[in-house]
Specification:
The protein is α+β, with helices and mostly antiparallel strands. The protein folds into 2 domains: about 1-65 and about 205-245, 3-Layer(bba) Sandwich (FAD/NAD(P)-binding domain), CATH 3.50.50.60; about 70-200, no CATH class. The protein contains 6 helices and 11 strands. A hairpin with a 2-residue loop joins strand 10 and strand 11. Bound molecules: flavin-adenine dinucleotide. The site of flavin-adenine dinucleotide (FAD) has 22 residues, from strand 9.
């Protein structure tokens, strides 16, 4: 529906066209892409897991590194779905931006349990075995990560253990639904969160914008960036109007 609205307002939508460089040319921005250059007056970049790298293309190096955290879900088998009639959430731990595993009843009737939050070895690392050496080196070589690891290595180790052990994952779920049986959960889908990490080892738990004159970068967009996407989109549009002097 949003795509149709954009098109009917005269906009175009380009997919499968990665931006590989951003250069200022007079009053224009030249976006180098995998399918040729795009010349625009102003640009807003919301690049998620690649936000820091896309920002660096226009010279905005910022203070954060994006660290990918994979989140896996288990699905409840149909006979266990009655155990979860609504959403079951933990009380958040303010030290971490991730909520911890919880239960979500979906509109199609399925119930998902998760996600965990385990360091992914690739920004597009949706499976445990996915490794990208450049991504991994960027994380392990960052001062912020070393500080984070020194502070929370126990939490990180527990997440890795829970990632590999269904029993450990189930134990975490049973804190909320004690009746849940091991045969009532099956491995489900995974996602990767883009989490900005500051040099002092702090996980940035708020939105962060950057850029200059005619480029606006969304450098960190944590949850609830999906749930509240329309409101956040409106806020970013207002900032863009102001920054690009479009009013
Ligand atoms: C497992 C999991 C559970 C979550 N649960 C919730 C939740 O319950 N509620 C909630 O609100 N949020 C949740 N989130 C977080 C939410 O998904 C993100 O905050 C949100 O998607 C961020 O939106 P975004 O548009 O900034 O980035 P994204 O949705 O990541 O979009 C970025 C886009 O930029 C594109 N891109 C990147 N680099 C380039 C490039 N060089 N050229 C062109 N395109 C590029 C990518 O392909 C991608 O399409 C969850 C995330 C995960 C992984």
């Amino acid at each position: 529906a949003i795509a149709a609205e954009i098109r009917s307002a005269g906009g175009t939508i380009e997919t499968s066209r990665a931006v590989t460089g951003i250069a200022e040319r007079g009053r224009e921005q030249v976006l180098a892409t995998t399918r040729g250059d795009l010349v625009v007056r102003d640009a807003v970049a919301c690049a998620g897991l690649w936000a820091d790298r896309v920002a660096a293309m226009s010279g905005d190096r910022g203070t954060e590194t994006i660290v990918p955290f994979r989140g896996d879900y288990y699905r409840l088998t149909p006979d266990a779905r009655h155990l979860v009639r609504g959403l079951i959430y933990p009380v958040p731990d303010p030290r971490f931006p991730f909520l911890g595993v919880h239960f979500t009843r979906r509109i199609d009737g399925e119930v998902w349990a998760g996600p965990n939050a385990v360091l992914a070895f690739a920004r597009a690392g949706y499976r445990r075995r996915d490794i990208d050496l450049r991504d991994l080196a960027a994380v392990l070589g960052s001062r912020g990560f070393l500080r984070l690891a020194a502070r929370y290595w126990r939490t990180g180790a527990a997440e890795f253990w829970r990632d590999w052990s269904k029993k450990a994952f189930l134990r975490a779920l049973r804190r909320y639904v004690p009746e849940l049986g091991a045969e009532q959960i099956t491995f489900g889908p995974s996602g990767v969160r883009a989490q900005a990490l500051d040099r002092d080892g702090r996980l940035v738990d708020d939105f962060r914008l950057g850029g200059s004159g005619h480029v606006l970068h969304v450098r960190n967009a944590p949850s609830p960036a999906a749930t509240a996407s329309l409101a956040i989109g409106r806020e970013i549009a207002e900032r863009a109007i102001e920054r690009f002097d479009l009013a």
